[in-house]
Amino acid sequence: MSKVLLVDDNISQLELMDSFLSQGGHTSVRITDAKEAVKKALEYKPDIIVTDVVMPGMSGFELCRRLKQNPGTVGIPIVICSSKDQEIDRLWGMRQGAKAYLTKPFSQEEFLRTINLAMI
Fold first, then answer.
1. Opening angle at CA 42, ends 49 and 22, nearest 5
2. Are 46 and 15 in contact (CB under 8 A)?
3. Per-residue pLDDT tens for 85-114?
4. Would the pTM of this model clear 0.90, i.e. be above it?
5. What is the CATH number of domain 3-118?
6. Could you give the C-alpha distances from 36 to 1, 21, 26, 40, 119, in angstroms and in order?
7. Where exactly are the structural domains of the chain?
8. Distance in angstroms (rounded) separating the CA atoms of residues 65 and 63
9. pLDDT tens, residue by residue, 34-57
10. β-strand 78-82 against 100-103: which pairing, if any?
C-alpha cells in the first residue's frame, strides 16, 4: 500500500482521485493549496505526489520545481494531472521534474496505471 499526496484546489476532483486510490489499495492525504503541499510532503513523506497545474497562489509546475529542489522531497515521484492538454504543457511539466503527465478527464484504470508506473 502506497501513500499518495493529492494536491488540487477542486474538492470534487480530490474526492474522485481519493476514491480511485482507495479502491486501488492506496492511502492518500488531500491538500487544496500548493504552498501547504510543500510542508505536507516533508511531514507525510508520501511515496508519490499527484498535483494539478492551475491553482491559486502557486501552480503545479512551480510546486513540482520546488519539490525537486528540496533535498527532503527530491526523490518523490510527481504526477501532474491537469486539464491543460497541449504538448507544450506536457513537456514543461516533465522539464520541471514530473515523472508523468496525465490529462483530465481520465478513467480509474488510466489514473491507477499512471500512479503505479510512476512509482517504479
1. 40
2. no
3. 999 999 999 999 999 999 999 999 999 999
4. yes
5. 3.40.50.2300
6. 24, 21, 21, 6, 23
7. 3-118
8. 5
9. 999 999 999 999 999 999 999 999
10. parallel
